[in-house]
Amino acid sequence: MLFRSGREGRSLLLNCFSACRTHARTANRSHAERWNESCFQISPNSKSNCAVIETRQLTKRYGDLIAVNHIDLNLKEGDVFGFIGPNGSGKTTTMRMLATLLQPDYGEAYVCGMSIYTHPREIRRLVGFMPDFFGVYEDMTVVEYLEFFAAAYRVLPNKRRKVVEEKLELVDMAFKRDAMVNQLSRGQTQRIGLARVLLHDPQVLLLDEPASGLDPRARIEIRNLLKRLGELNKTVIVSSHILPELADVCTRVGMIEKGVLIVDGYVNEVMRKARRRIMLNIRVGADTDRAAGLLEQHDLVEGVSIGSDELLEVTLSAEVEDYSDLPTVLIEAGFKLSLFREEEVNLETAFMELTKGLVQ
Question: What pTM does this model have?
Answer without folding.
Answer: 0.73
